[in-house]
């Protein structure tokens, strides 16, 4: 019995110490999504004066339609991580291009529920991104192919001719591509 108690004590100390090293931080800009981790002893410094122009190319969606799309949430994480690190919010210029299966995350709840039999878990995330000045863009080719008409999708999504077109245009404007 004494050995079991000693083992449990050591185990709980180990767990609490390893969890203490993983300090999760809520975002200052998008508080409900995109939590990050505190990173100590950074060896490659973040240039806090940098203007970050980034376009996220997201075409994947989770297999479980009741789960928030983690690839979309990465956009919130990017914003929160940099603001938490001291980069001024106004230095972040972010676009999100959705196509493929990820585009269904832009459906209004009633149409998402019709398709998947669950509520759309992405709507509040997309609204939070839009509120944080993220340019949310839907591929027009995907929209037509998947019947994502203006009546069926949330208002925050702006329509482009295609994902390919808007990705090229944004990169020509100096945006760096992050693709999922």
Features:
two-stranded antiparallel sheet; 180 residues; five-stranded parallel β-sheet; Hypothetical Protein Ychn, Chain: A; alpha/beta; 6 helices
Plain-language structure description:
The protein has six helices and seven strands. With 180 residues, the protein is an alpha/beta fold. The N terminus is likely disordered. Helix 2 packs parallel to helix 4. The chain has one domain: Hypothetical Protein Ychn, Chain: A, CATH 3.40.1260. 37% of the residues lie in helices and 17% in strands.
Number of strands: 7
* Uncertain spans: 3-17
The CATH topology name reads Hypothetical Protein Ychn, Chain: A
**Strand-pairing-aware structural class:** alpha/beta
| Radius of gyration based on Cα positions | 20 Å
Shape: globular
Biggest sheet, strands in spatial order? 6-5-4-3-7
Domain count: 1
Average residue pLDDT? 91
Beta-strand residue fraction: 15-25%
Percent of residues in helical segments?
Answer: 25-40%
- The second-level CATH architecture is 3-Layer(aba) Sandwich
Distance between the termini: 51 Å
The ordered string of helix (H) and strand (E) elements is HEEEHEHHEHEHE
The CATH superfamily is identified as DsrEFH-like
């Amino acid at each position: 019995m004494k050995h079991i108690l000693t083992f449990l004590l050591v185990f709980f100390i180990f767990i609490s110490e390893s969890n203490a090293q993983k300090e999760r931080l809520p975002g200052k800009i998008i508080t409900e999504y995109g939590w990050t981790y505190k990173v100590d002893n950074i060896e490659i410094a973040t240039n806090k004066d940098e203007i970050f122009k980034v376009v996220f190319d997201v075409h994947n969606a989770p297999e479980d339609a009741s789960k928030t799309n983690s690839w979309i949430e990465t956009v919130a994480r990017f914003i929160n991580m940099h603001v938490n690190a001291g980069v001024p919010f106004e230095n972040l210029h972010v676009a999100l291009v959705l196509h493929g299966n990820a585009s269904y995350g832009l459906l209004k709840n009633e149409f998402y529920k019709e398709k998947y039999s669950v509520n759309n878990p992405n709507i509040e995330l997309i609204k939070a991104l839009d509120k944080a000045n993220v340019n949310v863009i839907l591929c027009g080719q995907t929209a037509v192919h998947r019947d994502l008409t203006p009546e069926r999708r949330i208002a925050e999504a702006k329509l482009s001719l295609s994902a390919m077109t808007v990705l090229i245009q944004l990169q020509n404007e100096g945006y760096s591509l992050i693709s999922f």
